Amino acid sequence: SLSQPEREGMFHRGPGLNLTSGQYTAPIAGYYAFTTTLHIVRREPRRKGQGCRGSRLRVLICVQSRCQKNSNLETVSRLQSSGDLFTISVTGTLYLQAGQYASVFVDNTAGSALTVQSGSDFSAVLLGV
């Protein structure tokens, strides 16, 4: 079943994705391919005297909001000193029981306020049981 997009540029097919909570809930147990691409803007420049150490950005897709190993997909990106817009992607396969959910987390150690821009996406596809 195909549902109408809530805003321009959005595509949503099938059950499971809650656009309000940002969670995908597995309708049946199985292996799911997850992908997210986030367009992130640094809203303020890095403060003077703040070195490159710690200016990392982790993006994770976690099951049941538990982001420890074996229940997440993760990528780590260094924030360069130049440029305010970053695009970061995470993709991979996770096993979900029926009724479990997966969602995207951003771990910001950059010391700057960040905003996720429109045009970012999050998708899940059932591969098999």
Write up this protein.
This protein has a 5-stranded antiparallel sheet with strand order 1-2-7-4-5, with no helix packed on it. Strands 3, 6, 8 and 9 form a 4-stranded antiparallel sheet that branches. The chain starts with 16 loop residues before the first strand and ends with a strand. With 129 residues, it is mainly β. The chain has a single domain, classed as Jelly Rolls. The chain is built from no helices and 9 strands. A hairpin with an 8-residue loop joins β4 and β5.
Topology:
Layout: E1 17-18, E2 23-25, E3 30-42, E4 56-63, E5 72-78, E6 85-96, E7 101-108, E8 114-116, E9 121-128
The name of the CATH topology is: Jelly Rolls
What best-fitting shape do the alpha-carbon axes yield? elongated
Strand order of the largest sheet: 1-2-7-4-5
Please estimate the helix content. Answer: under 10%
Q: In percent, how much strand structure appears in the residues?
A: over 45%
How many helical stretches?
0
Computed CA radius of gyration, to the nearest angstrom: 16 Å
What is the gist of this entry?
With 129 residues, the protein is mostly beta strands. Helix content is 0%, strand content 50%.
